[in-house]
User: What shape does this take?
Amino acid sequence: MDRLDRLRGPVPPRPHDARAIAALAANPGCARRAVLDAAGVDKDATAAHLGYPAPFGQSPFAITRGNAFESLVKESGCAELLRLLRELLGLPIPLAAYTDLGDVGGNPSAQVRHSHTRKLLDKAARDSDDAGTLYDHPLLRLEIAGHSAYLEPDVVAFRLGGRFHIVEIKSFAVVDGQAEPDKVAAAARQAAVYVLALMNTLEELGHDPRRVSHEVVLVCPENFANRPAATLVDVRPQLAVLRRQLARMARVGAIVDELPPELTFDLAPDADGVPTRPVAELREAVRGVDARYAPDCLSTCDLCFFCRDEASAEGSTDLLGRQVRDALGGVATVTEALGLADGSLTPGEGQEEIARLLRLADRIYAEVG
Ligand code: SF4
Assistant: This one.
């Protein structure tokens, strides 16, 4: 842990919210991201100091629209949400109790709110009453590489018939039953974080974690109107990737042990918090940990522009997307791939098969071209 603290420098670790944890599952093969996140490095500040500020942040319009839609779904004790759940789950919910866990007697501390959430979830799990119960703003916790991450409570946990469901409310539109696949995938990754945190909480409390459904209820506005519609999304694949990535981060010590002992991402902030670390030095430090750039990074990681430039300068096949990169397994650069394709480069050990396929593709292109 000392080593991770030294990598980060003398600032508190950056807390992980559900969005950040979900993004871990977007590129599980990247050692750079695993190390920076395990150390709690502020990637946003790092990217900005390197001269590659992250392209994220919702527009004020999108935030207002998202908040308005969420209020609509949750108003009058989640009346609209209950209507959707009745329709979607096909179960009669004549009376559902609504509990807001966002405020514990005015105490905003995460520990107090989390402990209150645990108490109520424990009670609900023991309760044999089949009536539905909605828990708004549950504050859940996940262990990320030895740090406790309290998850932003922007979901509803719903218990019915002894099973818990996570409800995720998003303001992107579903048009004719279709939503943008990237947005659904991002929502599924984020919901998987809550599902895992809820499973862990039940397990810690001595209950069967399988009582948390892996089907989350995704609520979105339908056909550009503000009328909410709900669908079930199976997040088992996202859960599997997330578990693997969290386990990898817990074992990040093995990657860190390979790094030079003097390596640090310390931004050396002055008294006003302004980074004073020479940019060239920080660039070398970041480049000291292997990255695995993929175009998906552009929507999930603060360092995306920096890593894209680096991959581009190296002519890396990573730029071509994961599918192509995986198909070219073992061929690191575009120049190398072209050399194997036109026969000017002799395939190295293990590259014979991909070289044969590249030569074949080159011949086909020449014939049809
Ligand atoms: S942007 Fe860079 S550090 Fe982030 S996941 Fe992609 S390759 Fe890794």
User: Anything to note?
Assistant: The first helix runs from residue 2 to 8. The radius of gyration is 24 Å. Residues 27, 30, 32-33, 291-293, 297, 301, 303-304, 307 surround iron/sulfur cluster (CB under 6 Å). The chain has two domains: 2-9+37-56+260-327, 60-245.
